[in-house]
Each structure stands twice: as C-alpha cells, then as structure tokens.
Task: structure prediction
Amino acid sequence: MNIADYIDQYMAGQLSESEKAKFEALLKENSDAMNVVKNYKAVNTLSEDILEQELLAQVKQKVYGNEVQKLKVSRGYNRKWLYMAAALLVLVIAYFIVQKSFNPAVDSEALYAFYERPIYEDKVRSTDVSTLDLFSQGKYYFELNDFVKSETTLRTFLETQPDFFKTAEANFWLAHALFQQGQQGQQEKYEEAGKLFLKSKYKNYECLFTLTQAFQSKAEISQVSTDCK
Amino acid sequence: MQLSEMINSIRSGTAGRDRIIAQLYDDQHLQNTIKKILRVGNGSEEDFRSILSFTLVQFLKTVMKNKELTINGSLNNYLAGIARNLWVQELRKRNKLPRELPEDFNLKDETPSVDLRLIEEERSENLDKVLSKLGKNCKEVLMLWASNFKMAEIATQLNYKSEGMVRKKKYNCMKELSNYLEEHPQLKNLLSL
Result:
C-alpha cells in the first residue's frame, strides 16, 4: 500500500476496515505522513487559496491591466501639472519680489514706514516771524509745511552766517525741507538733500542720507535703517 | 456561448479562462448591472473594479469546483447575485449598509453564495509567504486537486504521464506544506486554517 495513493480515500472515510488498518499502520512508521494527515484539512484550504489567488491574478490582469497603464500615464500627467504649478508659483513669488524691489509705489510705502517727519515741541502757532532770526524762521516755515520758504530762508541763513554754531543744524533742516519737496514730486531735490544730511552730521544723518539715496535711486529698502525714525 | 461551453473553457486551463474573463469583462450589460448595484451605498469607481473582479473570481471558482454547475435564469442575473452579495458584505464591513435596501437587493435563497477567502488583504499577505515556499508545479497540482479535478484530468491538463505520477507529486507537495505548517504553527491561526 502506498500512502500517496490512498490518503484522499482515507481522509474521506472511503477505505474498508482492513485497508484503513493497513494505512494507519503505515502512518505510525512515517512521521511525515502523520503530519500530512494532521494538516490535511489545512493543506486543502491552502490549495483552495492557491486556486483563488490564481483566478484573482488572471482577472486582475484583465480588469486592472489596462488601468495600470492608464494610471501610470495619468500619474505622469499629474506630476507634470504639479511641476507646472510649482514653476508658476515660483514665477509669481519672483514677480512680487521684483515688483517690491523696483516698483516706486511699493518702495514709497515701505520707505514712508521708516520715515517720520520730525515734530518739535517748540512749534509755535502764532509767531511774529519778524522777531525770529533766519535759522528759527527757516525751521518755523518747515513746521508750517512751507518747505519752499523754509528752503529759501535756511539757504539765506547759511549764506549769510556760514560760521554760525547752528550751521550743522541748519543744513539738517534745509536737507529736510528739500527732502519733503522731493516727496512732493521734485525728484531732483533728493540729491542735494542727501548731500546736506551728510554735511550736517546731525541727528542720524547717515541714515537720512541713505533714505534720500533710496528714494532717488529706488534702491533696496533694506538699505534704510529704522534708526531714521 | 452555452454555459456548458463556458464551463469547459474555464476548466480547460489558463488560456480558456482568459477567454471567458475577457468575454465577461467586456460585457457592458454586466458592467451596467454592477454599477447599478453599487449605487446603493455610493460605491466608487474603485469599488466597481473590485466588486467586478471578485464577482468574476467567485464565478470562476464555483465553475472550477463544480463542472456540473447549473444556473436557473440568465448568467447576468447569476453574476449580479454574486455582486450584490459581495457588495452587501463590503457595506456591512464598512458599517454603511442602509437599513432599507431596494427591492431587487433582497437576497433570496437561490442567490449564489460567496466563499472567497482572499478578500481579506491581511490574510492574503500571509498566504503569499507560505505559498512562496512552493514551486509552480506544486501550486498547479494542488490548485486542481482543491478544485475537485480527478487525477486523470490533472494528468491530462498538466501533462503528467500517469495518474500515479500526479498522486505522488500531490502527496510530496502536501508533505512540503504540512511540514512548513508544523514548523510555523502560528500560521494556522493567521490563515484561519
């Protein structure tokens, strides 16, 4: 008797009593065969699993076969769109950076944030100008936002009294008067304003010089220090 | 194509099965029927492919195991019955089975049963580990044996010289799997064996 030939019948209970006894005698001598009998049901179930696996593989080949190709292509297109979107985003960001650097309007807004027109407590609303010296008149007109008159008066002061101890301060206020006119659209005033700020060496003159340069040349905002405030 | 021809084709081997799979997959009527079933519970396109796949697998498996299969009514209705069963199982798993199902969803006694074990993916992974130990010939022999093929049929299909050769091969493959299961007893639980 051969175990391989009779195992299915044995498990199905289809062997005669004598055949069954012979078969079981063989089993006792063969541990591998004992294992097969012990795991017969499990192996049968696993074999059914093999069948399912094979059938599923065949079906998937048909159902998903073309789809896999399509998905691969589709994934490619998605990536392409992703790259295009990323490139577009970079361009938009770059555009805004460039705009921020070269657009005068944007510059002005940013620079105005750095700049505060000096206001002094000694501002006098009703003053008899005739009682003031030229320096004080120039500063007074500045406070009244009459920058043209302030410029003229301070120029006269500097020309007529060049050695006066307030020369540096006069240059400072003249520079401010010019600067304000520059802000009002007279671009050419900035250049002189910058020079005068340097000349004055008075109250953050370096910063104010940079500020005028920035307005004049539309330079980078980062060059302007917050110390100008 | 007559059902008997279809059954013969399915049981004849890989090429025959491929032909039937293609025929059923390309059947627009069947596709529309399954899509209609999946409207209950808002099945997705992926659900459709999955249910269609398992419906075909279940049908093929039933035919592989039972060459005397008879179908009362049309094949389309039979396959729709499998699809409905599978979809109800899936909706139950997702806790999305509506309280009231459409009338044509009422699962009658004659609805073909679903006995697929590969639907659980976790189980499928463990199965791959076990079956990777087996050679191609072993898988083929055991697969046909589990499909209730007679030894003579297996010998013919797989080109063995005799039924005895098939029996010997099958026994050796069973021995291989048995010993592996003895060495890895935890697999029986993992694979629900």
